[in-house]
Amino acid sequence: MDVQMPQLGETVTEGTITRWCKRVGDPVRADEPLFEVSTDKVDSEVPAPAAGVLTEIRVAEGDTVAVGTVLAVIDGAAAPVAPSGPPVVVASTPVGADAVPAAAVPGATAVPVTPADARFTSPVVRRLVAEHGLDPAAITGSGIGGRVTRADVLEAVARRGPAPSSPPPAPAPVPGAGMGPGGGLRREAARVPLSVMRVRIAEHMIRSHHTSAHAYTSVEVDFERVARVRAAQAEAWKYREGFSLTYLPFVARAVSDAIDDYPVVNASIDGDDLVLHPALDLAVAVDLAFEGLIAPVVRGADGKRLRQIAREVSDLATRARAKQLSPDEVQGGTFTITNPGPYGSYQTLAIINQPQVAILATDGIAKRVTVRPGPDGDDVIAVRHTGLLTLGWDHRAFDGAYAAAFLNAVRDVLEHRDWETELE
What we know:
Blueprint: E1 2-4, E2 14-20, E3 27-28, E4 33-38, E5 43-47, E6 52-57, E7 64-66, E8 70-75, H1 123-131, H2 150-160, H3 196-211, E9 214-222, H4 224-241, H5 248-261, E10 267-270, E11 273-276, E12 282-284, E13 286-287, E14 293-294, E15 297-298, H6 306-321, E16 335-338, E17 358-362, E18 366-373, E19 379-394, H7 400-416, H8 419-422
Parallel strand pairs: 12-16, 16-17
Antiparallel strand pairs: 1-8, 2-4, 2-7, 3-6, 4-5, 6-8, 9-19, 10-11, 12-15, 13-14, 17-19, 18-19
């Protein structure tokens, strides 16, 4: 049976093989992980379509090929053969005029990967293991299939305690040798290849900058009412739902209300047409341990109350970090929220997620001194929870007045909604 590059989503046309889980000669069970693939939408494990023996691997790790390309061959009638050494690439399929096959000669051997190495999910994880001098076999992986994550490595470092004593200092340099213009010692630059995900993010962001006429509008929001409700509900919510109540679902709920009055924000551009979407399919950017990000989608967010939005955002974020999202869950968003606020950011100018026309950044919320109207009409100085909301928007779709009016509507909901009732 030929194993082909699957169609991982309706708009996906190609994928990059990031890891083979089996070697030539390995027995394969139906539906067990056979290889990992990365696309511009999601990273996925692909199961074996049938049981048998893996007799050929035709596309090497790191190669990008079109949907439908034959990647490997499984012989259902073959007897298992003891594998010797790393995966063998029988042939590499060219993927374009500029493509350089990883192994074009039949029988060429791919870059050696030991069983321990195969458990590491990214170059960042492998580098951390090397930097701290850890024994790969001694690290227990918490990822899918026992693979080791960045958190696993850091936990192993913490358990080990202080690093071994450093080697004796190197001899003092000869005066003037290796010195920079200011007299300081020059250091060698480290060269780390970009991961497949970083390459895909780069392509998507550059394409967005070349496509949309980016503009930005910010408003300051008084989150005091939201902060008090969160504080009052924190313990009960965590006990009942199993995760913390953050500011994000409040903002998402306010956005869904405001978009009813400002529907052009929830749109996309197709040629010379503006496509107004009938529902808010809300994409929420999720950080993947600083190695990249992904934006899974809450479908029909405009028809859901805060509690349901919070549940879905938490579930999607958890499964995104565990690489358990399906391709359909990370495409089709009509508006995006990115949330760097937990890291204390002040103002973020986010790049629009194509083909959408707007993206909202929710920055750090903190106690700040503000001037507000007092009960007798005079201004008073007060300490309130405040933060910025910044809308990145496509000037082709609408203008600054529309962007400001939309943000003002979001702010009005956040500052004046009876959130206690919303959480009942």
